[in-house]
Amino acid sequence: MSSTETTELARPGAGAGIPPGAEAALHSRAELDRETDRLHEALGHLGWAREECALYAPLTLEIRKRKEEAGATILAHSYQTPDILFGIADFRGDSLQLSVEASRTPARAIVFCGVRFMAETAKILSPDKTVLLPAPDAGCSLDESITGEDVRDLRRRNPDAAVVCYVNTRAEVKAESDVCCTSANALRVIQGVPARRILFVPDRLMAENLQAQTDKEIISWRGTC
Questions:
Q1: Is 73 in contact with 111 (CB distance < 8 Å)?
Q2: Would you call 104 helix, strand, or coil by DSSP?
Q3: Alpha-carbon distance 37 to 19, whole Å?
Q4: Between 20 and 30 A from 16 (CA), which of 142, 146, 183, 212?
Q5: Which residue stretches of 82-214 are H helix?
Q6: Residue 160 in contact with residue 137, Cβ under 8 Å?
Q7: Tens digits of per-residue pLDDT, 95-151?
Q8: How far apart are CA 14 and CA 56, in angstroms?
Q9: Closest CA to 97 of 74, 126, 122
């Protein structure tokens, strides 16, 4: 999977800012004014002043121009900051929504503003597209609680059980599982699996909730989020 670098940027007054003149020198005053107006229209309802938006305008304008030149689409997970969600993203949503959107968009390059397993899921659903992850080290405690080798070990110790994995997992865990599920369809998936014993990974709390709703035996992992 390809990756790229990005600049970590805090909201003005919350830490780091944009280096003075870095991106502003690349654009005309008229362009920057229009971008500031666009950002203020998108972020004003969240309490952002026009002056704050003006600080971000050089960077968001440059990002949007480069995106258009590359024919890319930017996807942003709901947990991202407002400047990303409303300033540069083409689509916003949860991890599965965005991965499905990645498969639907005609863009050949996807910039996924989220954690690594989300970008991997998008790549699985769009194998012919380039998926770029601005923060390659961005992780999730739930996803990081289990590996493909852990799933193989669970199978060895429970040969009669089927493995159902929550979609918020890395590609290697999905590859070792029998079926993936979402939080919305987890019970239906478990009920539809022929096996009476289910290895549900990696969310322990979700597994406990599912056990209360089925007469099948649910064997949980220790992951939490």
A1: yes
A2: helix
A3: 21
A4: 142
A5: 82-85, 95-104, 116-125, 148-157, 171-176, 186-192, 204-211
A6: no
A7: 989 999 999 999 999 999 999 999 999 999 999 999 999 999 999 999 999 999 999
A8: 14
A9: 122
